[in-house]
Write a structure and sequence with these properties.
Aspartate Aminotransferase, domain 1; about 400 residues; 7-stranded mixed β-sheet; 16 strands; 5-stranded mixed β-sheet; Aspartate Aminotransferase, domain 2
Length: about 400
């Protein structure tokens, strides 16, 4: 009825439609209303952790686990005793084993993990942070705002470009609860700079008897570029937090690991319940962790994309080029760079080979977005380009069909 009323209203304000056309237009309205707004897209942008596209794509194992958990599950039931269980226990063992920590649990994202750490461990007391680390992440979410919301008092030390261990030492008072290190994962400061290593911060914190909390952000399990690893943080810090849907390659989650006492205080704080994750996220996260623990990290899409060599990328895109030539779609191969994205490894590009499509770049990119499935390309050098690094396994034929349809649609 709403669709019919909208059509009648449109015709009253403009030109009346023919009866047969009217039914077609009403049907189109109904189909549009019944189509899910959240859709799967093909990421041809070359940005691996594309925040606008949901960051890390899940592995098949994670998707399968998620599907199983969608039904009734033992989310908070101990199957051995038949008594109430604790959902945090589902991933605690995998997290402590993978990262070698005393305690661990997960909340709904890393910003939540940082907020919980500051609230549970530092409320009403001082937290020392370098001025060079007062970051803003996507959506105008700023570290000083998080600090105020937690009830902790932020004490800034050093300058934007230079902070020394002595700055932290001089700022410690009986009111100090913690030193906070915030990894500047989405930008780099270069030139006349000086920063305090995590090892030096650890020494200062231990000598003063205060906590060292590390907002690690991307959470690299293994060394990649100059990104700090989780192992480096765990060796020095009392509490470490990072994202589950960045370099870990899992679902959106905030991972909390560290020493037993502060992590336990966080897990038991009332705010932890408001920030807890659901059964679907837990299932996907556990599956991702188990893949890494069992030596199958290469099956995680993010890991595969990060490790793909330029020769592998070139062979794959060369095959696409030949097939598109056969379909009458002119193209050429261009050397380029992929990006890690998601606020990880800024300035650290990954060499790639782009498929550049001949024709008006913005029109082709728009036609690709409007196709089925939608394809998210990028415009570079005045050409619409497809980056094979972020195309998942099994998406090749769908991609080629979508490219052919988009290019031919703008010729008509």
């Amino acid at each position: 009825m709403d669709a019919i009323r909208e059509q009648v209203g449109t015709e009253r304000d403009g030109e009346a439609a023919a009866e047969t056309e009217r039914f077609v237009l009403v049907e189109a309205r109904l189909r549009s209303a019944a189509t899910p707004r959240l859709r799967r897209v093909i990421n041809a942008s070359g940005v691996i952790l594309h925040t606008n596209l949901g960051r890390a794509p899940l592995s098949k194992a994670a998707v399968d686990a998620l599907a199983q958990a969608a039904f009734y599950s033992n989310l908070e039931l101990d199957l051995a005793s038949g008594k109430r269980g604790e959902r945090a226990d589902l991933v605690r063992g995998a997290l402590t084993s993978l990262f070698g920590t005393e305690a661990a649990f997960a909340v709904n994202n890393n910003a939540a993990a940082v907020l919980l750490a500051l609230t549970a461990l530092c409320k009403g007391r001082e937290v020392i942070v370098s001025r060079g680390q007062l970051v803003e992440i996507g959506g105008s979410f700023r570290m000083p705002d998080v600090m105020r919301l937690s009830g902790a008092r932020m004490v800034e030390v050093g300058t934007t470009n230079r902070t020394r261990a002595a700055d932290f030492e001089a700022a410690i008072t009986p009111r100090t609860a913690a030193i906070l290190r915030v990894h500047t994962s989405n930008y780099r400061v270069t030139g006349f700079t000086e920063s305090v290593s995590l090892e030096e911060m650890g020494k200062v914190a231990r000598a003063a008897g205060v906590l060292l909390i590390d907002d690690l952000g991307s959470g690299a399990s293994e060394a990649i570029g100059d990104e700090p690893t989780v192992a480096e943080s765990v060796a020095q810090c009392d509490v470490v937090t990072f994202s589950g849907d960045k370099l870990l390659g899992g679902p959106q989650a905030g991972i909390v690991i560290g020493r037993e006492e502060p992590v336990r205080r966080m897990a038991r704080h009332p705010l932890a319940r408001a920030l807890r994750i659901d059964k679907l996220t837990l299932a996907a996260l556990e599956a991702t962790l188990l893949q890494r623990l069992s030596g199958h990290a290469a099956d995680i899409p993010v890991e595969r994309m990060l490790r793909a060599t330029v020769d592998h990328v070139r062979r794959r895109v060369a095959m696409w080029s030949i097939k598109l030539d056969e379909r009458g779609v002119p193209n050429r191969l261009v050397d380029g760079e992929s990006a890690v994205g998601g606020g990880s490894l800024p300035g650290h590009g990954l060499p790639t080979v782009l498929l550049a499509l001949a024709g008006p770049a913005s029109r082709i990119a728009a036609a690709l977005r409007e196709g089925s499935p939608p394809v998210i390309a990028r415009v570079e050098g005045g050409e619409c380009c497809i980056d094979p690094r972020t195309i998942l396994k099994g998406e090749d034929e769908d991609l080629l069909d979508a490219v052919e349809a988009a290019v031919k649609s703008i010729r008509r």
